[in-house]
Design goal:
The chain is of the alpha/beta class and 256 residues long. 36% of the residues lie in helices and 25% in strands.
Length: 256
């Protein structure tokens, strides 16, 4: 199941010792059902703040966020959040970590076990079901974190730089895995990243955010379709878009 997500005139400010700091200002964005959208911007542009508001972990200073037309006023099972850190319970096995949200939801044990087994198969983790997180590689731990977020069948999957801590090779493999997973599940995805190549490879649309405060500087519709083979990174259109986004971000850095 997927849903339409929309943010309208979203602003968030924080009180600091130096006065009020505006993290994001007047942000408008939308993600259509089953769409994969990336937010890309320089460090400190408010990407994570924006994602945390959508997740219901922060309240906006003004503006609204809606899911299928209903206001978001707090965390809920309709949104699954995957942070950059794996946030797995070290004392639980892989299967027990994936089952955590189902336990909170009160799903009976047989239905929970079936859902967990299905997700472990999708994530290529079945043989690691009884392993502890400390026995897994970084990429495997992040697959567990994504599986745990998908277990309750959220309408929107929110990803906050989920591959930032991975080495370059594992990161590329995880990007390809995520595209495959998205096509298979049809979940609506909104992902934050500072990696331009990652955003262009994964997304159907990209929002480029300005800095201080974060605003939508540019919205790009990507011409690559849903099938994202690694070769797409070598296409002239990909390289042109890469230069366009990097130029926008370099302007932001120069203005700081």
């Amino acid at each position: 199941m997927s849903a339409r997500l929309e943010a309208t005139a979203l602003t968030k400010s924080f009180a600091t010792d130096r006065g009020e700091t505006v993290a994001i200002q007047g942000v408008d964005l939308h993600v259509e059902p089953g769409e994969f959208v990336c937010l890309v911007g320089a460090s400190g542009c408010g990407k994570s703040t924006l994602l945390n508001i959508i997740a219901g972990l922060l309240e906006p200073s003004s503006g609204t966020v809606t899911l299928e037309g209903w206001p978001i006023i707090g965390p809920g099972p309709d949104r699954g959040l995957v942070p950059q850190s794996y946030s797995l319970f070290p004392w639980r096995t892989v299967a027990q970590n994936v089952a955590f949200g189902l336990e909170i939801a009160g799903l009976d044990k047989s239905a929970s076990a079936e859902r967990v087994a299905e997700l472990l198969e999708v994530m290529n983790l079945t043989r690691w079901a009884d392993a502890r997180p400390s026995q897994l590689s970084g990429g495997m731990r992040q697959r567990v974190a994504i599986a745990r977020s998908l277990a309750t069948q959220p309408q929107v999957l929110l990803l906050d730089e989920p591959f930032g801590a991975l080495d370059a090779h594992t990161r590329l493999l995880m990007q390809e895995f995520l595209v495959s997973l998205w096509r298979r599940t049809g979940t609506t995805v909104l992902m934050v990243t500072h990696d331009v190549d990652e955003a262009l490879f994964l997304a159907q649309r990209v929002y480029v955010l300005s800095s201080h405060p974060g605003r939508v500087k540019c919205e790009l519709e990507l011409p690559f379709g849903d099938e994202r083979a690694p070769e797409v990174r070598r296409k002239p259109e990909f390289l042109d878009l890469r230069h366009e986004v990097l130029d926008l971000l370099l302007t932001e850095v120069a203005d700081v």
